[in-house]
Amino acid sequence: MFSLHERLQADSLPVSDLGLCRVLLMNNRVWPWLILVPRRAGAVEIHRLSAADQTALMAEIAAASRVVERLFAPDKLNVGALGNMVPQLHVHVIGRTRGDPAWPGPVWGSGHAESYTAEEGAALAARLAQALAEDADSLRRSETA
């Protein structure tokens, strides 16, 4: 049975569930930052997922990337599955801009963090959920056209 690692739960806000992944918003307003967590018990590494889940994960990473790009217009997207602190498989999709406080270095360990207010976080999570749903609808329409 899938359960979210306590650190991911403590550091993020829920956005939505896709076909495979739970989508979370990192509670750090410095960067637009989504986390995708495959809802598979015991998942630790991408290559250990079934072939179908690997394909679904890549499609969902692409969807999250499109949404971050469309809503925030970053200069670069950073996508990574590190797992050094949290062993549960999760993938970060982070919008970076040349003027951000950690540029060009990594966001991890940069010392830059600022939580969303409850209202701000809820509103952004809802906006992201809507954008992910619109992206999925757009893909379905293009596939049937």
Automatic annotation (TrEMBL):
Top-level taxon: Bacteria
Protein species of origin: Azospirillum cavernae
InterPro entries: HIT-like, HIT-like_sf, HIT_Hint
Transmembrane parts of this sequence: none
Matches recorded under Gene3D superfamilies: HIT-like
Occurrences of domain HIT (ranges): 34-103
GO molecular function, one term: catalytic activity
Coiled-coil parts of chain: none
UniProt-recorded name of the protein: HIT domain-containing protein
Pfam families, per database record: HIT
